[in-house]
Design a protein that fits this description.
By secondary structure, this protein is of the alpha/beta class. The protein folds into 4 domains: 2-120, 3-Layer(aba) Sandwich (Rossmann fold); 123-245, 2-Layer Sandwich (Transcription Regulator spoIIAA), CATH 3.30.750; 249-364, Transcription Regulator spoIIAA, CATH 3.30.750; 370-422, OB fold (Dihydrolipoamide Acetyltransferase, E2P) (Beta Barrel), CATH 2.40.50. 34% of the residues lie in helices and 24% in strands. It has 12 helices and 21 strands. The strands form 6 sheets. Strands 2-1-3-4-5-6 form a 6-stranded parallel sheet, with helices on both faces. A 5-stranded mixed β-barrel has the order 17-18-19-21-20. Helix 4 links the parallel strand 5 and strand 6. It is globular, with a radius of gyration of 22 Å. Bound molecules: iron/sulfur cluster. Iron/sulfur cluster binds at residues 148, 150-152, 155, 157-158, 192-193.
Length: 423
């Protein structure tokens, strides 16, 4: 039987989709196309209302276009909003537990010919043991942690993913070693709240310091980390290890202390700036990217301008901008002074423009320099990929160089790329 997996949302979902793919392939299923498969798995996302709608749209489309297929809905949207699927006729409905047992669920469905719904209370769930042997992209993601207990007032994810739980350290090392031996040059550590990794007496720092020693691992990237989790030990590791890339993604969310408090974030802008300065003292050219939510309830023009001011002080190299989107069941739902759509759109535009300016400034620093990059895609005679500091590079080159770290001379900006030539 042929299967096709739709993945919505974050890197953790991408990792878990790869686990399901691996399990299906190992059990004799064949990867099919979007038009012609017998089993469709939709790995859903619920981070915003739009993500819910997108997930639902895909499920409906699959049911309409492939009425004979086995349809499986899994993931965050299903975990917190399964009533949206009621009466749609989805064959198997799973939340965020047991994605790794997808083959067993399919077998059970084929024997009983009855729809299955299995959504457990995610708060009591242990870390689900999953291990990848290969990944379908050059940069391989490895999930080391699940869950979040921060309860930011705008976020539904703690209810979709449950409590913080971590993978056994030696299993992380084994998984990364296998992936490196399979030819992956870069590993991206992922989790719902990656920096909260903690297994018994092994902290996130303890784990990082073992991972960077893995033979053959050229690059280690942390998908995202909170500013409060970049300890002095981790900064020191950035100082001494060349394997940790020159890029870090730290969500700011707002540059106004008043809004940060309403968001239930655990830092203020002064702390954020102080820690970034410390990080830059050990890695002066590090690329620091971030997420910012605009139009949070109570965000006056003055507070929005405070955010712009903070962003300029920090000098990020890129900002992912999100308009505040109300989620049912979150604290933010009860807050007064919601911002109208037109104001939100204007502020989003302003920040996107600022992000592009900062990005181009950062890119300009590297023109005429020699850097190494990892070609991830081959398109129209060009190799496309990223440098360690996450610049997108495009060079004319041979397909055989895919997935190999190569040296490039950085020539000019062709936004969003830097065009260069191989050395
Ligand atoms: S840290 Fe905050 S924003 Fe991130 S998943 Fe947890 S609650 Fe959501």
């Amino acid at each position: 039987m042929k299967f096709y997996i739709y993945t919505l949302g974050c890197k953790v979902n991408t990792y878990e989709s790869n686990i399901m793919r691996d399990n299906l392939l190992n059990s004799g299923y064949i990867e099919g196309s979007i038009d012609n498969s017998d089993i469709y798995i939709i790995n859903t996302c619920t981070v915003t209302n739009t993500s819910d709608n997108k997930s639902l749209k895909v499920i409906r489309r699959v049911l309409r276009e492939h009425p004979e297929a086995i349809t499986i809905a899994v993931g965050c949207m299903v975990q917190v909003n399964s009533e949206l699927l009621k009466d749609l006729g989805v064959s198997i409905v799973l939340g965020n537990k047991d994605k790794s047992k997808i083959v067993d669920y399919i077998k059970q469905y084929k024997i009983n010919k009855r729809n299955i719904t299995d959504i457990v209370d995610i708060m009591g769930v242990e870390f689900e043991d999953m291990c990848l042997n290969n990944f379908n992209k050059a940069r391989a993601f490895v999930k080391i942690e699940d869950g979040c207990e921060n309860y930011c007032s705008y976020c539904i994810i703690p209810y979709a993913r449950g409590k913080v739980r971590s993978k056994v350290p030696h299993k992380v090392i084994e998984e990364i070693t296998t992936l490196v031996n399979q030819g992956h040059r870069e590993i991206v550590l992922t989790g719902i709240h990656t920096g909260h990794y903690n297994y018994k007496d092994c902290s996130f720092y303890d784990l990082l310091k073992e991972i960077v020693k893995i033979d053959g691992l050229k690059r280690l990237r942390i998908s995202s980390i909170e500013i409060t989790e970049i300890t002095d030990d981790i900064m020191n590791l950035f100082k001494i290890s060349e394997v940790l890339v020159d890029h870090i993604h730290i969500p700011l969310q707002s540059g106004s202390n008043k809004i940060l408090k309403l968001m239930n974030r655990k830092y203020d802008k002064e702390y954020f700036i102080e820690r970034i300065n410390k990080l830059r003292s050990v890695r002066p050219d590090i690329s620091i990217t971030t997420d910012v939510i605009v139009g949070f309830p109570g965000e006056t023009e003055e507070l929005f301008n405070e955010t712009i001011d903070t962003i300029k002080k920090i000098n990020f190299s890129k900002i992912h901008v999100f308009p505040f989107s109300l989620r049912k069941g979150t604290k933010a739902e009860e807050l007064p002074n919601h911002i109208d759509g037109t104001t939100k759109k204007r502020r989003v535009k302003e920040l996107i423009n600022l992000s592009k300016e900062l990005e181009i400034d950062y890119m300009n620093k590297f023109i005429d320099k020699e850097m190494s990059f990892l070609p991830e895609i081959y398109k129209d005679g060009y190799l496309i990929g990223h440098t360690g500091n996450y610049l997108q590079i495009k060079v004319k080159g041979d397909i055989q160089l895919l997935n190999e770290i190569v040296e490039v001379e950085m020539e000019r900006i062709d936004y969003p790329y830097i065009v260069g030539k191989l050395i």
